[in-house]
Amino acid sequence: MPGRSYSDTAHxxxxxxxxxxxxxxxxxxDIARNFPLLCAIYDSAAIHAPRLLTVxxxxxxxxxxxxxxxxxxxxxxxxxxxxxxxxxxxxxxxTELGHGTxxxxxxxxxxxxxxxxxxxLHTPAPEAIKFMPNIADAxxxxxxxxxxRLFVAxxxxxxxxxxxxxxxxxxxxxxxxxxxxxxxxxxxxxxxxAGFRFIExxxxxxxxxxxQLAHFDDAGRFRCALSRNQRFHTSIGTIDSGRALYAGAALxxxxxxxxxxxxxxRQRLTAGGVLLGDRDGIQRDLISSAARITAATALxxxxxxxxxxxxDGQPDxxxxxMAMLAKPLATYTARDVLTTCRxxxxxxxISGMNYLxxxxxxxxGMITAEGANSALLVAAGRSVELAAAGRLPRYxxxxxxxxxxxxxxxxxxxxxxxxxxxxxxxxxxxxxxxxVSAIGADSAATEVAIAVTxxxxxxxxxxxxxxxNDSEAETVxxxxxxxxxxxxxxxxxxxxxAHRQLPAKRASEIQRQLTTRYxxxxxxxxxxxxxxxxxxxxxxxxxxxxxxxxxxxxxGWGAEDFTDLAANRPS
Length: 571
Fold this sequence. Notes:
52% of the residues lie in helices and 11% in strands. By secondary structure, the protein is of the alpha+beta class. The strands form three sheets. Strands 1, 2, 3, 5, 6 and 9 form a six-stranded mixed β-sheet that branches. The protein has a three-stranded antiparallel β-sheet with strand order 4-8-7, with no helix packed on it. A two-stranded antiparallel sheet has the order 10-11. It is globular and about 95 Å long.
């Protein structure tokens, strides 16, 4: 609401969280265990309650690690009870001032004291200050999942999650913590961010969340058969599902912003009495945005499904690498689409009454949350390279990530994305990546990830079209898929030209196809596409059936308060 202070805006999310838990049965634990329900909550919050979205990580990064890695110890059960009704909030304290989202590099220490059967949490240096977790609000109890480096008898046993009461039931900081609230964020969502450190804070042995992965024997010795790298990736697995949750939420925001803009464009008159929505430049922007949203949504839906379709209740092994690809595509797509929408509606786009600014702020936060996109692309690209070289399990082989029946002929534009992917992965594996702006291993891995993502998303749309039960829906999906693929080819036209895959005749055909598909989709903008995105009218003032009347009423005037002097003046 306009007029709220920054801190009140940040706190409002916690109030909404408790309301959501109560409305859904009162058990936050049950919600955290239900991934499809979490997907629906994230997506709905992204559209209807953006301030709630900033605290939903309490399910995925607060409760889920306890549920997944807890041993049923009383200390853990007491923390779960505090989180159960949503009045206490889960906080994830992973990032550090000197390490950012490089969670394997954290320096916060958890020193095992075998005689006392406890740990001492300690911040040894300025670069180990925990940076930007949302725990500054003293009106909310905070239960933290703290990533720290475990030391046993002087030996570094790797990074593990520890369950820590950061703020008690009254919102007071617990002993051994020093905290400074951070200034309001600029360009991102309002959150109660803080920087804090531990000073020899004692926590019980049950604070270590390791499930059946490790244990301390009766003599206080640490027992774990996994390598340090395996320990880390196994113990923080809920971050992977969080990436899929945020990917879908970002796209929900994009669909909402697109729908608001598309409806507004049918009311807003421009020069010469032409509706904004009848301007062909606006139509092209809306169609291009719809195609990008559709492709990213198809890939994200495929990714989310893999978190619930594995064996023995475990996610499909492709789920985590798919999430590393889906989240960057989804959040970057949402950011770009929403920015285009904001600019096309003019000054209305920067009004706090019209949602677009709220959506953009949340998506900006999601680009960094659960692993910065730039780092995810590097990690995903390197995984693909290693799989292609036979140094990772076959599930990361790009051939295993296909979503189509290979017997179905691909449109030539999809085939071009396949060829680009194969060429880039092969070149990267052989250390001969040329024709792209790679200047080293990281940028080369990023190019690999982008090529794989482009192909996957384009194929995912075709798969959706093939599965459609309605011929009109299939036609629209194929047109949208063609627009996405053709625009991606245009984006990489320098690469295709360098590899002699874009002669003048093919380049002309790309432009002809795009013109044909744009034109075919114009009549669908306000009918099929709006219906498919399924976002009803929102309280945004420009999303009302008569936006001028809505604004006038908000400003305190009705039509009866105005007189047309020119019309009533005697001749």
